[in-house]
Design brief:
The protein has 115 residues and is mostly beta strands. Helices cover 9% and strands 27% of the residues. The protein contains one helix and seven strands. Strands 6-3-2-1-7 form a five-stranded antiparallel beta sheet, with no helix packed on it. A two-stranded antiparallel sheet has the order 4-5. The longest helix is centred in the middle third of the chain and has 10 residues.
Length: 115
């Protein structure tokens, strides 16, 4: 008797060989750029009493952070140094904070920069 040759594709006790390589995740599922978003969120974490800049360069102090009755999402109420605002902290009959007339402004987080 002669030696027998194992059949192609295995026979050595292990799984059969396959040429397919692992398929990479689609680009939409990769977390490219998420770190930058996290940094921006950290920088824009405002609390009542924080000094801030509006994107137009005006300065103010955060007086309110939260939801409002007239729109969805989070807003930040700012007491501005200059009288260029729209209110005194009262909007449509609801007082969110108090400041001098024309010194109050409600903004989205993206509209502010930390001092």
């Amino acid at each position: 008797g002669g030696a027998t040759t194992p059949p192609l594709g295995g026979g050595g006790g292990g799984p059969p060989f396959t040429a397919a390589a692992p398929v990479p995740a689609p680009l939409a599922q990769l977390s490219i750029g998420d770190d930058d978003d996290d940094e921006e969120d950290d920088e824009a974490d405002f609390e009542v009493g924080d000094r801030c800049f509006l994107r137009n360069g005006q300065r103010g102090v955060v007086r309110f952070v939260g939801k409002v009755h007239y729109a969805s999402g989070e807003f930040i109420g700012v007491d501005l140094v200059e009288p260029i605002g729209k209110n005194d902290g009262t909007i449509k009959g609801v007082t969110y904070f108090r400041c001098e007339p024309k010194h109050g402004l409600m903004l989205r987080r993206d509209d502010l920069l930390p001092c």
